[in-house]
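User: These chains co-purify. Model them together.
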Amino acid sequence: MGAALELDRVSRSYGDDGSGMPVLIEASLRVDPGEFAAIVGPSGCGKSTLLNIAGGLDRRYSGTVRVDGTDLGAMDDRALSAFRGRTIGFVFQSFNLLPGFSALENVLLPGFFTGGQSNARARGLEALEHVGLGAKAHKKPGELSGGERQRVALARALCSRPPLLLADEPTGNLDQRTGEQIVQLLSDLNREHGMTLVVVTHEARVSRVAGRVLHLADGKIGPSGEAATGAPAEAVP
Amino acid sequence: MKARRAAVLALRNLKRDRRGSVLGALGVATGVGCLVFFTALGTGVARTVRTRVFPDDATRIEVVPPQVSLGALLGGGKLDEEQMGRLAALPGVEAVLPKMAIRVSGLAYYDGPFFGRPLRIGVEVMGVGVAPALMAQDAAPGHPFADPGPGKPLPVIVSSRLLELYNKSFAAQRGLPKLTRELLVGFRFPVQFGNSFVVNTGSHPEQQVIEVVGFSDHALLGGITVPLDVARRLHRTQGLDADTYSAAVLRARTPDAVPEIIAAVRRMGFELDDSERTLAEQIGWAIALVTGALGLLSILITALAAVNIAHAFYASVRERRREIGVLRAIGASADDVERVLLLEAAAVGLAGGAVGLLLGRAGAALADLAAARVLPDFPFKPGTFFAWPAPLLAAGLAVAVLAAIVGALPPAREAARNDPAASLSE
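Assistant: Joint model of the two components:
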């Protein structure tokens, strides 16, 4: 079976020309389809950089990144953007919803660029229902609580049913109770829908539900040994 | 991304930043408003000059004998029937219509009622005889422009421009009634041919009555225009040459044929009476020059509006950097980002252009109103000083959209080039 996400000896240094301090040094990672992998590590160790590279948002790296078997480095911007829209869902710490758009419109937004399906609206509503916000589909982000905004962001990532979901500190801006709801939602997505999740976090409650916990330190990815459930995530030495 | 979806996104963004959008559009509106105002003014004034002051006919060529001539020895000189035949045979010539300046001096002395006012006036009368075909369409219905024969009133066509000058200048200064064409058609007054205030003609004066039968832009400006046969008859009566013409009007089949005909006429040793056309062209150039200068000023204002849009978009792009990063993360390509921003600019330009056109039209209406109330009723004063051809309106909108897009292009490019990962980390 092919990997959902594969990083092969990926290196990345800070600075536009890559001559700054190295943040990833020949880091390798393989995440299989249906796996829930949590990446933990100290602040500033490059977790978000790793996620951006995995999602094709950061292209200033050496090495190879494959998503669903497709080499992201071999695609031009247009092809990569279309691929990202179809294949990868993103959830950010600060929600990143567009303020002028309703919850439903935010959820439907990826379809603007990927050429959404004819039943996009129904799927958008379904995604909002799935995260428990069907009744607030027409509310603007400013009218929603932090937890609700993150659930809208999650619905946006789910609407196009991407095989891979990348989440960067998804509970970082939420209180304890709301954060747990989001973690539960992520766990459900993985268990019930078989979605591959890669979550960057520093919170134990996230890593507790992940199938595998990987540790990023000194530019390398290694197993932390704290994996509790789910299929194994493999850090390639 | 489909254009309709990009337009939806662009309009949503503009709606969010109403103040910036309105300010950008107003800048464009000011520039385009000035541009269409001055261009419409120049076009309108030029049209008045072309159609009323110096009416021009693109197929009409007026041939005159050379001012200095060695006569028939060198082939130039007199315009007689033989030369008329040669001119008619030139390629591209549809008709040759002779004109004969009346060389008999005439004196009009009038002492009587003049449309409700007493008038006592004596003037030297100049005249020209023309082929009736040249003026036939200008004669009023029921008033034929043809020699009626001896003992009957002589039909004359009067210059439309003379009537305009009389009404707006002469009559206004002397308290005389303003006249219309309808009032004047059929008006008769006596003229004594063979008499003069200023020269001793040495001939026997002959009393005639002339009757106004119509008005024409091509009639003699400071005199009367009669049928050619009347001029011949007057010349014969006074023992003068009645076979040599003073000019010939050539009608070309098409305007394209005119340059070739002119060249052939010059080769025959004749000259062209293009004094009015030259004057009209000179005035046209002067108007074009002033309009061009004001147009350049307007373009400058529009360019400043474009710079203003560039600044506004740079600020907007910086403010929306993270948002643009999000769009890239959910599938927008760099081209999509640029397209959405340029559509925003195009919408601002279109709105600014539409408002600019309205401002221009409103300014023109106010200017016309002020001109009607403040300026004296001078000759050829038009009802409106402005002309609004459809291409001007389309060009106004196009300039507005173009200026906005050009202004927004650098920030749009910058936004498209932004590193999405860096944008999201801000």
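The interface with chain A takes residues 1-2, 5-6, 8-9, 12-13, 15-16, 322-323, 325-336, 419-421, 424-425 of chain B (CB under 8 Å).
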